[in-house]
Amino acid sequence: MNLQIRPASVDEERHLHRIHQELKRPARDTYPPEEFLIAWLEDEAVGCAGTAVHQDGAYFYGLAVRKAWQRQGVGSQLMQARIDLLAGTKMNYAIALVMFWNSRFFRKFDFAPVKRNALPQSAGFHADLTNPLLRRSAVMVRSFRQAIDPTVASGLPGEQG
Ligand SMILES: CC(C)(COP(=O)(O)OP(=O)(O)OC[C@H]1O[C@@H](n2cnc3c(N)ncnc32)[C@H](O)[C@@H]1OP(=O)(O)O)[C@@H](O)C(=O)NCCC(=O)NCCS
Fold first, then answer.
1. Residue nearest to ligand 1 atom 42, measured at CA
2. Is the CATH number of domain 3-143 3.40.630.30?
3. Is the pTM higher than 0.85?
4. Mutate to test the pocket of ligand 1, among 28, 78, 99, 105 (most ligand atoms within 8 A of CB)
5. Which terminal residue of the chain, N or C, has fewer Cβ atoms less than 10 Å from its own Cβ?
């Protein structure tokens, strides 16, 4: 598969809306293109992933792969690309809000569940972290500096073993 992962340009925001709409993901008012990578197969945008950075941490959100292209490694490549972008920066950690069925995927990339009250204060910068609609998602964190001891919570809600 000749997949190319590139930063989204300003005129590509419509692809970000479309990918999320198709998957019936909770709608966002905006998908800031400067925060997104898009995975391209030829001229088809098949997936995307967002990263919002703030101070010493990053928030991973908006990871989505179009149905027809799932389970072929596209999501993993998007995830690895945004991890690679952060490695070598001053970022100490990345956090993500994850529903339990996606936790295995995030664990593969060294994310671990963490209690919300154990997060560094700077992790609260993104509105999603205080959005009541997302309160059932577990917070997962990946350290880039061992600055966070993922003294992890007792497991994700609903997770089976
Ligand atoms: C999660 C998602 C981005 C994974 O993308 P992908 O391209 O299918 O992922 P990859 O092929 O690289 O990796 C496959 C892994 O993803 C997970 N995965 C993929 N599709 C899945 C599905 N339908 N149900 C559960 N897990 C799934 C599994 O952990 C799988 O690993 P496995 O094959 O060892 O079981 C994709 O399923 C998706 O867009 N889902 C809807 C949006 C979403 O939930 N985003 C994440 C928000 S936290």
1. 64
2. yes
3. yes
4. 105
5. C
